[in-house]
Amino acid sequence: MTAPEKTMDKPELQLPEHIHPLADKEVFTFACHPGVPCFTECCRDLELALSPYDVLRLRRELDISSREFLDRYAIIEREENDVFPRVYLGMVDDGRANCPFITPQGCRVYCGRPAPCRTYPLGRGAWQDSSGRPHAFYVVQQEAHCRGFAEPVEQGVDQWIAGQGLADYYQANDMLMPLLHHEKLKLGLKPTAGQQDLYLATLYHLENFRNNNRDRHDLTDLALLRCAVDWLIEQFFGERGTIS
Hints:
Elements: E1 19-21, E2 27-29, H1 52-62, H2 66-73, E3 74-77, E4 86-89, E5 102-103, E6 106-107, H3 115-119, E7 122-128, E8 134-141, E9 154-156, H4 157-163, H5 167-175, H6 177-180, H7 183-186, H8 193-203, H9 206-211, H10 221-237
Antiparallel strand pairs: 1-8, 2-9, 3-4, 5-6, 7-8
Helix pairs in contact: 1-2, 5-10, 8-10
């Protein structure tokens, strides 16, 4: 789930029947493993958006550069109404549109798998309050084809986030909000083609952003992403970044 276009209060959403909002401390029953009858069935025919942090982790898992990853495995779309380009994982043209990393035994990049794969069956909606602080709510997406809900494993949101290694992914996605939902964009400012290219060259090639400045060499991945977002806010809007 992407962040709603609202920056004050928790957004009011009309959710489909198969999506259940989770109350605080509410548990859900789910597990996914090779013994589940539908194992890997969810790894095909996807429209899987990749965040900058997804690309960073995937290219590192594959031991290739961001450029090589984007050239080999990604589709970059530039729709007229989109503020910034969107990056998607390219599916294999094999009649079933399989993920390029899926095998009969499971995911071959499991340790670097992107946030959407880690999150399911959870969905996360994020927004900013009036001070720019991020907030989130969670839902369970109980789709009829998924047999993982028949597994007798109860857990809550915090357990799922910890078990799937999601904390850094969520933090990285929240860091993007001051840029993607900047007030000037909401008022109609449209980035130029050059700015859109700079957005991709900076956030989806973070190793280059690191190497272009000695002061960034020792930064952690999340600190580097924070620095990149702040730098883009300054370049695009002429103001310092607002990430706390």
